[in-house]
Amino acid sequence: MARHRFIFTWLAFLATGPVTNLFGQEPHLLTIPKVEQAPKIDGKLDDDCWAKGAVAKDFLQRRPEEGEPATEKTEVRICRDDRALYIGARCFDSQPDKIRAGVMQRDAPVKGDDYFFILLDPFQRSREGYYFRTNPNGAKGEALINSDMRRPQMDWDTIWEVRSNRDELGWTAEFAIPFRSIPFDSTSDEWSINFGRWFSRNQERTRWVGTTRNRQWFSLEEAGRINGLLGAESGKGIDFKPYLASKWSAENSVDDYEFDAGFDLFYRVTPSLTATLTYNTDFAETEVDQQKINLSRFPLFFPEKRDFFLEGSEQFSFGGIDKSPLAFHSRTIGLSTKGKKIDVVGGAKITGRQGPFGIGMMGMRLDDYGDLEADDVFVGRFTYDLFEESKVGTIFTYGDPQANLDNHLVGVDLNLRDSEWWRGQSISWHSFYMTTNDGTKGTDDVVGTWFSLPNYPFRMGGHWVRTGEDFEPALGFVRRRGGQSSSVRFGYSFDQPDSAWLDDLSVGAEYTRYDLLDGGVDSEDVELKLIEARTLAGDSFVLQVEFEREVLTETFEIVDGVNLAAGDYRGTEVELEYQSSTNRPLFGELELGYGDYYDGTAFKGEVGASWRPSKHLQLNLGGGLTSADMPVGDFDAWTGSLGMRITPTTRLSFNSIVQYDNQSEQIGVNNRFRYILKPGSDLFLVFNKGFEKELDSFRTFKTETIAKLGWTFQF
User: Fold this and answer.
1) Are residues 454 and 509 in the same domain?
2) Winning range, highest mean pLDDT, from 218-222, 335-339, 607-611
3) What percent of the chain has pLDDT over 70?
C-alpha cells in the first residue's frame, strides 16, 4: 500500500508540474528521429519518414483573438538525417478553393498570401536566429533574426529547399534545411524552434509557442525545443562562391567593356563565428535605388542592398539606430557620393559570436576613383551580453572612401532590454556615445538615448540625441548636425472583440523638436493621430493632423528658382492614409496631405497600385507629387514609376522598372532577369538604360548590359 501511494504521488507530481505532462515529457520539447531515407522534397508529405516524425500541433492565435485556438489546424512533422533537417507542414483549410497565394518570386512580400514559417535558434540564446518561409506556391523567403532589429533581414540568403502542394484538405509544404547552411554547435543535442502561420482570409496569426501581442511576430524569446541532433554533419564549414561577369556600357558616347572574375570564400572558424575573404567584389546584380526628390535641407538616406555587406550586417548595428546618426553605413564603401561604382579590390570580414561576445570586423581595399586615391577602410564592432537580453558594446571605424582624409570614429553603447518587464510587458532602453576626427575639423561627438515600451494596448517611446557641428562619420551617415533632437510618443489601441469587420482601432500622438546648439529652435512638429483603424479584411486607414514649425537661418532653395528667405515658418497639415489588403488582385496605398507649406500652401500625394491577375504576373504603378503655391514661386515636384514582375516558376523571374522625376528630368530603366540553376547558383542578366531631357525630347546618355554567373560550393 505504501508503495502504491508513492507511485501515485510521483505521478501526480509529474501531472501537475509547471512544464511536464503525465509522462514527464515537456509539452514543447520534441525528440527528432533520425531516418534512413530522406523525403523527396515535392510538397506532398507522402514519404514514409513523415509517419516517424516528431509532431508539433495545437497552434494558438496571436491575432485577432490572443491565446485562442486557431480557426484552422496546423500540424508540423520533423525528422532528420545526417545531412539536413526536414520539416513538413500540413496547413488545414476547410475552404481550400479560397487559399490565397499570389507570389512566386523569392523574398517577395507575401502579406496578402497564406504562408507558414520556421524560426530556428540553434544556440538557444533568444537573440539571433534564422527564419524560413513559404506560401502555397512554394515561394522561398529566408532571413536573419536579431533582437535589435525591428524586422527580419530578408536580404540574407542561404542554401535550402522547399516545395508546396494544394489538396482537398488545404495545403502542405516540405522543407529541407542542410546543416551546413546555418551555424550550430555540433556538440549540442538541442535547438530552440518555433513555427507560425498567417491565415490571410481571416487576418489570423497563429504560433506553436508564444502568442502575446507584446512580442514581435518573429520573436525568439518564446519557443519550443528539439533534441536528437547529435551527429549532424556540419562539414568543414567552407563555402566557396566564385563568379564570372561580362559588362558592356556606353555613357555619353564612350564605350567600355570588361570581363570580371572574383570570389567570396566563407570559413566557419567556430560554430558561431564566420570569416569571409573577398576578391574583386562585384555588385552587378543589385537592384536599383528608388528615384527620389529631395525637398528638405538635409541629405536623403538610401538603404544597403548589396549581398556581401548584408551578410552578417546585424553584428555592426550600433545604438539601436535605424537611419541617423549611424556610426557605420556600408553604402559609403564602393559607391561615390553620386552613386557611381568604386571598385572593391578585396577585403576580409569576421562576423559572429564567441561565447557572450559578439564580433564584427571588416577591412576593405578600394581602388582609386577620379581624384580619390586608393584607400583602406576598416570597421570593428564588439558586444558583450548582459543578463538575459541586454548587451554593452563598442565600435571603431577608420578611413574615408569619399575623401583623401584619415577619418576615424570611436563609440560605445548600452542596450538594456527585458521582454518580461512587468506582467508580460516589454521595455527597451538604449544609450550611446560616438566621437569622430577627420584630421581637419578636429574632434566632435554625438551622445544620445532612446526608450521604447512597444506593448498592447498602451505603447510609448521617446529619444534625445545631441549631435556636434563637426561630427563627421566618414563610414556612417548623419542627417543633421549642430543641434539636439528630442521626442516623445504614445499610442493606445482599443479592443474590438465583437466587431464583425474591425480588428484594431487606435489613437496616438508624437512631439518632436530640434534645437540648435548655439541657441534657438530649428524645427518643431506635433503629430496627432486622430484615428488608425485596421479591418479584419486587411485594410488600414489613418487620419492625422500635423502642426509644423521650421526656422530658416539663411535662404533655402527648395527647387531651382524657388528661394525661401530666412524666417520662422509655422503651419498645419491634414493627412490621410489608406492601404488596401494585398490579398486582392488589385491593391495599393494612398497618402494625401493638404495644408500650410512655409509661407504658402501645398498639396502632397503618394500613390502605389498593383495589379496581380495571376501568380505569374504583377504590374506596379507608383508616384509622388508635391504641388506648392507660395508667394516666392509655385512649383510641382513629382516622381513616377512603372514596374512589372514576371515569375514563370519559383526559380525564374524577370523584374522591370521605369522611373522618372521632373526635377532631374531623367528616365531610368532597369531590367533584371534571374534564373536559379540550383540553390546557391544563379544566372543574372541586367539591362539598364538612362535618358535625359534635351530640348523637347529625350536622349540616351547611358546604356549598360551585364551578364553574371555565380556558383556556391559547400565543403
Assistant:
1) no
2) 607-611
3) 96
8 Å CB contact between 145 and 133: no
Say whether both 474 and 569 belong to one domain: no
- Cis peptide bond prior to 64, omega within 30° of 0: yes
Q: Which of 460, 457, 396, 395 is nearest to 427 (CA)?
A: 460
Look up residue 251 and give its amino acid. E
pLDDT band at residue 310, thresholds of 50, 70 and 90?
confident
- Name the β-bridge partners of 610: 587, 620
357 and 450 both lie in a single domain:
yes
- pLDDT band at 641; cut points 50, 70, 90: very high
Least confident of 418-432, 483-497, 650-664: 418-432
**Within a domain: residue 208?**
yes
Q: What is the mean pLDDT of the chain?
A: 89
What is the number of structural domains in the chain? 3
Give pLDDT, residue 26. Answer: 66
Determine the average pLDDT of the residues in 141-146.
86
| 628 in a structural domain | no
pLDDT for the residue 12: 34
Domain boundary residue, one of 163, 198, 227: 227
Nearest CA among 139, 149, 320, 314 for reference residue 220: 149
Q: Is residue 363 part of a domain?
A: yes
pLDDT of residue 387: 86
CA 664 from centre of chain: 30
Question: Which SS3 state, helix, strand or coil, does residue 253 take?
Answer: coil
Beta strands in 305-407 (DSSP E): 344-354, 357-366, 375-386, 390-398
Residue 712: which of 282, 240, 260, 267 has the closest Cα?
240
Distances from the Cα of 156 to the Cα of 85, 280, 304, angstroms: 19, 21, 12
Nearest to 444 by CA among 485, 473, 480: 473
47 plus 182 within the same structural domain: yes
Query: Are 390 and 417 a contacting pair, CB within 8 Å?
Result: yes
Give residue 350's domain range: 299-479
Whether residue 127 is predicted with pLDDT greater than 70 in this model: the reply is yes
The model's confidence at residue 221, banded by pLDDT at 50, 70 and 90, is: confident
Kind and range of the H or E run holding 610: strand 600-614
CB distance 638 to 626 below 8 Å: yes
Last residue of a domain, one of 576, 595, 620: 620
Judged against a pLDDT cut of 60, whether residue 22 lies above it is answered with: no
Q: 473, 488, 493, 478: which is closest to 525 by C-alpha?
A: 488
Pairing relation of β-strands 254-270 and 54-56? unpaired
Q: How many CB atoms lie under 10 A from the CB of residue 439?
A: 12
Three-state SS at 50: helix
446 shares its domain with 501: no
CATH number of the domain at 38, please.
2.60.40.1190
Return the closest-CA partner of residue 195 out of 44, 351, 319, 28. 28
Q: Are residues 344 and 365 in contact, defined by beta-carbon separation less than 8 angstroms?
A: yes
DSSP-derived letter for residue 39 is P
Are 456 and 595 members of one domain?
no
Residues 172 and 54 placed together within one structural domain of the fold: yes
For residues 463 and 498, state if they share a domain: no
pTM reported for the whole predicted model = 0.85
Pairing between β-strand 29-31 and β-strand 224-227 as defined by DSSP bridges:
parallel
Q: What percent of the chain has pLDDT over 90?
A: 63
The 10s digit of each residue's pLDDT in 365-378 is 998 888 888 889 99
Q: How far, in Å, CA of 427 to CA of 407, rounded? A: 36
Burial letters for 187-213: b for 16+ Cβ neighbours within 10 Å, e otherwise? Answer: eeebbbbbbbbbbbbbbbbbbbbbbbb
- Identify whether 237 is part of a domain: no
